[in-house]
Amino acid sequence: MSKAMLVSKEEIARLIPHTGAMCLLDGVEEWDATHIRCVSGRHRDPANPMRVAGQLPALCGVEFAAQAMAVHGGLAGAVGSRPKSGYLAALRDVTCLRDRMDDMDGDLVIDAEQVMGNADQVIYRFTVAVGDTGVLRGRATVILAVEGANL
To answer: Which among 58, 79, 90, 147 is placed 20 to 30 Å from 104, CA to CA?
Structure first.
């Protein structure tokens, strides 16, 4: 039995710059000021644009997590003003727990927790899993460009 989505795929598409096939999240199950849980079945899609030789490497889970972080920023407004864009500046402690994820049944569950943030940058800890089976985990630093700022 699936949970009701708090935020739909259509609403996600309005919050992030990714469009079409690169909008990877299907919905948001829960979120608060520091955490978001998103779901996606796009890892099984044969037309996923990140596939290589028909397979989707587990490392591509970083993009699913990055989109969850962007949605969280848009929903929580935790950085003061809405960012115009964010730039993934650093990844730390990234561990792939599998080689690939396209062969996994069930939806991906993407959790991202903001561990610190201000108007210039945000650091998240993230996990990507299908049920109890982990795909990858790590931390990401995102540099924010606030409306009107030049980078």
So the answer is: 90
